[in-house]
Write a structure and sequence with these properties.
Shape: globular
Helix content: 55-70%
Distance between the termini: 54 Å
């Protein structure tokens, strides 16, 4: 997608259509002819020709057709080594300050990761039709304003880096806990986010928030193998087999977050990474987790991200360090948040604390509220098991 967007002069809509056409051609041809030796190059080549066909068919403006013919007409495929630069360039294009702030992250999730409009709408808690209109307007704005696909110069990064980091973080979040579908973990999205975070850290090694983001992703992804069982069912943190955690990723992530914090310019991703380190370095079991430190870090994080989601996470840490009643008091103060009412994890967290307090009827009601919000299948199955447990022992 990134390479084809560059080849068509930054026309995101044209590139998306051409790539979809190329993927459709692959689905039709590869089962019979076999997968080509370089699938990426095959898709780029076919998409390039599909884009050229569309330009001719739609009689684009003469200057645009000449530019596209010049770029697309070369028989040589773009070198694979430029794919990473194209991908970063596409992210920066989607996060350009000329675009409305509310659409930069959704557009990148759509263009870079191929998330559906419905998935993105669920992640941002807006109707699908609303999100679709935002994405179409953004593509038109990119084409009309001639926004380039390139990694900006260092002096141009201010005002754009925060949105790019947010995009990479949300790509990972969607991979780590998918908002829809049958799988809890979408490993390909986790891998994409880690790859992009590494590329950004190479590009900006002196930015502590960039290093902090990479540390956060590595520390969190280190637990991937233990988060589901052989059937794909969710395994909560305290029940995970910590022998499955990736020690190498944990060591790398811990070193990176330490390096970032030593620079004396703390930020939200560094704090998130410090919290992840508290979890991922507790290799002996749940009892080794420093929940008081985690609660304190969430309290500090609220200075940077004063959101009800962060407060809800702090409540869970308080519950683990001071007892379920203390955490429940905090969660109950968030009950009026319209955003959290649509967040299944809030109701699950309340239900878990109510269950620990022996208030099983209320716990069952909270589990049912979570199920009504239609979480992904692995989460739904987990909630169903918890609900059956509290209902059977009331």
């Amino acid at each position: 997608m990134a390479t084809v967007t560059r080849l068509v002069g930054g026309d995101l809509g044209l590139a998306e259509d051409a790539v979809q056409d190329a993927c459709a051609a692959a689905l039709a041809q590869w089962p019979a002819a076999g997968v080509p030796s370089d699938p990426h190059a095959w898709l780029v080549s076919v998409a390039r020709h599909k884009a050229l066909d569309r330009i001719r068919r739609e009689s684009r403006r003469l200057d645009k057709e000449r530019a596209a013919m010049r770029d697309l007409g070369s028989p040589d495929l773009p070198p694979a080594a430029g794919a990473g630069d194209d991908e970063l360039g596409l992210i920066f294009m989607c996060c350009h300050p000329a675009l409305d702030a509310e659409v930069r992250v959704p557009l990148t999730l759509r263009s870079v990761c191929g998330l559906t409009t419905a998935e993105i709408a669920r992640a941002f808690l807006v109707p699908e039709a609303t999100m679709a209109k935002r994405l179409v307007r953004a593509k038109h704005k990119i084409r009309g304003a001639g926004i380039p696909l390139r990694v900006p110069r260092p002096d141009e990064l201010e005002g754009r880096l925060a949105a790019v980091l947010r995009v990479v973080y949300l790509i990972f979040t969607e991979g780590h806990m998918a908002t829809g579908g049958e799988r809890l973990v979408r490993g390909e999205l986790c891998d994409t986010a880690v790859r992009l975070a590494r590329a950004l850290a190479e590009l900006l090694p002196d930015e502590p928030e960039v290093v902090g983001l990479l540390a956060l992703l590595l520390l969190t992804d280190a637990r991937r193998a233990a988060r589901t069982d052989a059937r794909g069912a969710l395994v909560v943190l305290e029940e995970q087999d910590r022998r499955l955690w990736d020690r190498a990723l944990i060591a790398e992530g811990e070193a990176l977050v330490t390096e970032a914090l030593r620079r004396g310019r703390p930020g939200p991703y560094q704090l998130h990474a410090a919290i992840a380190a508290c979890h991922s370095t507790a290799l002996g079991g749940p009892a080794d987790t420093d929940w008081r430190q985690i609660a304190a870090l969430y309290g500090e994080l609220l200075r940077y991200e004063p959101s009800p989601v962060i407060e809800a996470n702090r409540a869970v840490a308080v519950a683990m360090s001071e007892g379920p009643a203390a955490g429940l008091v905090i969660l109950d103060t968030l009950a009026d948040s319209a955003q959290l009412q649509r967040w299944p994890q809030l109701h699950v967290a309340r239900a878990e604390l109510l269950r620990r307090l022996g208030r099983r009827t209320e716990a069952a009601d909270a589990y049912r509220l979570a199920l009504m919000l239609e979480p992904p299948t692995p989460e739904r199955d987990f909630i169903g098991r918890r609900l059956a447990d509290v209902a059977a022992t009331r």
